[in-house]
Amino acid sequence: MLAPGQSIHTIRWANGLAQRGLNVHLAALEAFPPGAYDPRVRLHRLPWGRPLGYALAAGALRRLVQRIQPDLTNVHYATGYGLLARHAGCRPMVLSAWGSDIYEFPRASTWHRRLLQRNLNAATALCATSQAMSREMSKLTRGAINITPFGIDESAFSPASHRNPDGPIVIGTVKALEHHYGIDVLLRTYARTRSLLSTTHPALAARLQLHIYGDGSLRAELQALAATLEITGSTRFMGKIPHDSVPEVLRGFEVYAALSRMDSFGVAILEASSCGLPVLVSDADGPAEIVVDGQTGFVVPREDDLAASRRLTELLLDPARRQALGQAGRQRVLERYTWNLSLDAMLGVYHRALSKIR
Question: Where are the beta strands (DSSP E) in 21-161?
């Protein structure tokens, strides 16, 4: 594997494949988090770091590949790591796209688009996390694209055993504080909803809280917006938390909200569904694919805080509907998005890629 060493997605893929009995070597330009990887995963730190290493570490990667002689190399992230693998001559290569490498990078310039196309066309097999991303990739390459979603650990992400019927009603999200994740839209949605319910259902409004987990470049700007909207008293910016703390946080929510402008998949949405939460999402490509509108949650137009507020109000006024949507969401995760199903899909890609060269 060649992938971002500090990403929870890389950690889970590498560990899961090792637990399935594969001999996994992982190379990365970043330092590896202590204790994150299964002891069976062999870690290799490449020189130069990012971003220089994408262009300069090809020789080191080539020597590593010659030494360990892998059956194939699964490269995660089609831009930087895809470039590095292509220059190192990694073959056969399964190239897994993650999101911004497909949705943002090629839009920067014609040069960026052509570089990405060369990376995609060098692969033996291509993977996307969603059908929506697959359609976007198809604009860049004629190669067949396999769907390998980031799976959910349904045992860790499980529903709360008990809820306090008289406690705070928490609307929450776990997202980076960046423009494309629409945290500003969520703040406006919450402010609009709280204002309405303060008039129609004051006791309910008094129990509402908005918890935002994550950090990013817009933190100060978003906190200022919360102050302008006069919701600072019930809005909490909780900061970034370790991934293993997320299940317990989600179990404290009543509604999970993700009103992204752009999101190629939506792992956190599925984690919330696995915890039995109703989800309120935008019609960005990934969320609109994984949420069944009216069945596992609600899908609203991007940047439409009025539509989002209407749906949020509907959820807050109907606990039984919240429970039904949450239960249906967990069932959908169990049927389509468990971690074992994702590993099965990836192993199928590996076998097909190897069959092409044998």
Answer: 25-28, 42-45, 73-76, 93-96, 125-128, 145-147
